[in-house]
Design brief:
mainly alpha; transmembrane; UreH-like_TM_dom; globular; Urease accessory protein UreH-like transmembrane domain-containing protein; 223 residues
Length: 223
């Protein structure tokens, strides 16, 4: 496991409160509509979501690494890594509710989402728990500042495979909270509203972003 994979996993865990706010409603709705299958539905839904993250990470990581290779611009990925670190700082502000600049970036994905969303809506109500898998595949494309910020790390990962692994690590970090909210909605409300957890998580992501900025600037200065 590379440091970026581990970092993406931690971001997923720390950003769980945001995930519950963005996707928790639909996850709990799916379980409510299938009470007899309340365990299987969130499992299939989140596996589908994880597959989508993997595909998105592979596309972004592969595309950016290919462009960097053929452009023959020295240190191009290093500069992009600096941008990724700045996105981590923006993400910290977003989670901590200190500044909501990432909302504007989320809005950029709304046009694409309007084209994709009907595919997921056509699967409701779920005929069986297995239908939650393709539903999760669609819902993984929901515009989300947390996902977009992590995608910047996938973009500078150097390959499609590394980009996929970074997004899978992120998805695995969000998985416990999303499974929990899908299985037991009432117990997640306190976690989602916990100001201490949100502020602590935002502070950790901010430190991670600042550390990466410092390390990247050092690399650029030394070359």
């Amino acid at each position: 496991m590379t440091p970026d994979w581990f970092g993406a996993f931690l971001i997923g865990i720390i950003g769980a409160g945001h995930c519950m706010g963005m996707c928790g409603g639909i996850a709990s709705l799916l379980s409510t509509n299938s009470p007899s299958q309340s365990v299987l539905v969130p499992i299939f839904y989140n596996v589908g979501r994880l597959i989508s993250y993997c595909v998105i990470g592979a596309i972004v990581g592969g595309a950016i690494s290919t462009v960097a290779e053929f452009s023959q611009v020295n240190q191009s990925l290093t500069w992009l890594r600096l941008i990724a670190a700045l996105f981590m700082i923006l993400l910290a502000c977003y989670i901590g509710k200190w500044w909501h600049g990432l909302v504007y970036i989320e809005r950029l994905g709304q046009k694409l989402w309007k084209r994709i969303a009907p595919a997921g809506q056509s699967l409701l109500p779920l005929k069986s728990p297995l239908y939650a898998l393709p539903f999760g595949l669609v819902w993984g494309w929901l515009p989300c500042g947390l996902v977009y910020s992590t995608l910047t790390w996938a973009a500078v990962s150097g390959s499609a495979l590394n980009g996929a692994f970074i997004m899978v690590a992120f998805g695995l970090g969000t998985m416990p909270a999303m499974l929990f909210i899908g299985i037991s909605v009432s117990h997640t409300n306190k976690l989602q509203k916990s100001n201490f957890l949100r502020q602590s998580g935002a502070a950790l992501i901010l430190l991670y972003g600042l550390y990466t900025v410092q390390q990247t600037i050092t690399l650029l200065s030394a070359s």
